[in-house]
Amino acid sequence: MSEPARSLANNDLTDRRVLVVDDDPTVSEVVSEYLRSAGFIVDRVSDGFAAIDAEARISPDLIVLDRMLPGIDGIEACRRIRSSSSTPIILLTALGSEDDRIRGLEAGADDYITKPFSPRELVLRVRSVLRRSLAELAPESALDRGPFRIDPAARVAMMNSVLLNLTVREFDLLAFLVKHPDQAFSREDLLSRVWGWTHGDLSTVTVHVRRLREKIEPDPTHPVLLTTVWGIGYRLDLKEHTK
Amino acid sequence: MSEPARSLANNDLTDRRVLVVDDDPTVSEVVSEYLRSAGFIVDRVSDGFAAIDAEARISPDLIVLDRMLPGIDGIEACRRIRSSSSTPIILLTALGSEDDRIRGLEAGADDYITKPFSPRELVLRVRSVLRRSLAELAPESALDRGPFRIDPAARVAMMNSVLLNLTVREFDLLAFLVKHPDQAFSREDLLSRVWGWTHGDLSTVTVHVRRLREKIEPDPTHPVLLTTVWGIGYRLDLKEHTK
DNA sequence: AGGAAGTCTTACGGATCACAAACGGCGTAT
DNA sequence: ATACGCCGTTTGTGATCCGTAAGACTTCCT
């Protein structure tokens, strides 16, 4: 109940412009209709070049891009759009292979939906991606909680009034945990919500947790703040349910 | 041995209401039985109008809807339900054509299963759709009952305000029992609803009950909280009969 | 009392998991 | 151009947990 509600309140998702790119009129029609009824303003084009052009012209808040297109394909269109803009992109595809998915994400796509998909799921994904991208733009205020003070704007983190010398990832990780204290997160969750990855090496999380511990724990070998929940993941303990 | 298992999700999928709509008594019976043994509460109706009525009346968490129905067909029922509610819908069908599928998804279905399907696949799909839809909702809150306090989000269990050091399985087992106190469950039930297995070695349950007793019973050899119901299974006694 | 079925207890091997340490790549600053 | 810092990955190690099996014990029934 903490985050999603607030970001929804601050950043309204209605009336956002979505650009739908698909050469199949049926799919394009269905997708557009559903997005419209979900409160989005929808523009449609049917090939890659038109997509690049339209993106530059109307600056949509998000693009739904079919992977298979006449002319340049979706992946290439995605790459070109991304090279000049950070507009979020959701890729549509008939293929479901892992390789395919990775190539899509590498090209800069923010999410990936395989056909056949339900329009409802599409709307959910669109909302989710939009929320994420809008949340990054919103100016956030500093947060004091427990011994921590997180200032996202200044990118400064303090603990007991002393400055923590954190790296980018460490800051993001700590900021997320301070925003969601006393809640256990799996490595997948953290990878997804802090790193923004949908898949990847989970040990990345493990190592960064260890590095963060070195900077915030009195005794890093016996964590009391950032504790591990065996078989689940990690939790930042601000409530004293321990001991 | 084990299933895809590891739901480790934030939201408990047990005790969710599923409405099964099918005019074929055999199919309806089989589907319902499998869903029940997977821990769902199942209601059944046999035609489209009854489905619309039942949906409004009992507000199920999910609907399994046959595509072929007397009166209005599944697609139409799906559309009507969707017009007034966002309850997730899984469509059952004998047909497998692409067109058919698209029309189903267009009507607002969240997933689509073609007959013949394995009951196991059905349960997996139901879980998957439910998990997606529940993920958008509020996280579950802590539960206080008797001497126990269960916080699923934090993955913390306390007894008389002291922290219990439980493993994953022990936590899941205790959480389930605290949610359903003073009710006897067979080992099969527990295996199905806590482990998510449809079959397996029942001694697994026995051993875990014993391990849990070691951590919550004053005298594990003479249980007073987690008692065994001879010939039936186990029960968590929270109503204070004696003492 | 005796047998059968159900339950409890203990033990063990495999599997999983968490952690530490180190490595190489990449970008940036010097 | 070089050095440094950060990041993601890999490897090895130790610890934990889980499921199963096997035997002892208890309860129920005849």
Automatic annotation (TrEMBL), chains A, B:
<feature type="DNA-binding region" description="OmpR/PhoB-type">
    <location>
        <begin position="140"/>
        <end position="238"/>
    </location>
</feature>
<feature type="domain" description="Response regulatory">
    <location>
        <begin position="17"/>
        <end position="130"/>
    </location>
</feature>
<keyword id="KW-0804">Transcription</keyword>
<keyword id="KW-0238">DNA-binding</keyword>
<dbReference type="InterPro" id="IPR036388">
    <property type="entry name" value="WH-like_DNA-bd_sf"/>
</dbReference>
<keyword id="KW-0805">Transcription regulation</keyword>
<dbReference type="InterPro" id="IPR016032">
    <property type="entry name" value="Sig_transdc_resp-reg_C-effctor"/>
</dbReference>
<dbReference type="InterPro" id="IPR001867">
    <property type="entry name" value="OmpR/PhoB-type_DNA-bd"/>
</dbReference>
<dbReference type="Pfam" id="PF00072">
    <property type="entry name" value="Response_reg"/>
</dbReference>
<feature type="domain" description="OmpR/PhoB-type">
    <location>
        <begin position="140"/>
        <end position="238"/>
    </location>
</feature>
<dbReference type="Pfam" id="PF00486">
    <property type="entry name" value="Trans_reg_C"/>
</dbReference>
<protein>
    <submittedName>
        <fullName>Response regulator transcription factor</fullName>
    </submittedName>
</protein>
<feature type="modified residue" description="4-aspartylphosphate">
    <location>
        <position position="66"/>
    </location>
</feature>
<dbReference type="InterPro" id="IPR039420">
    <property type="entry name" value="WalR-like"/>
</dbReference>
<dbReference type="InterPro" id="IPR011006">
    <property type="entry name" value="CheY-like_superfamily"/>
</dbReference>
<dbReference type="InterPro" id="IPR001789">
    <property type="entry name" value="Sig_transdc_resp-reg_receiver"/>
</dbReference>
<keyword id="KW-0597">Phosphoprotein</keyword>
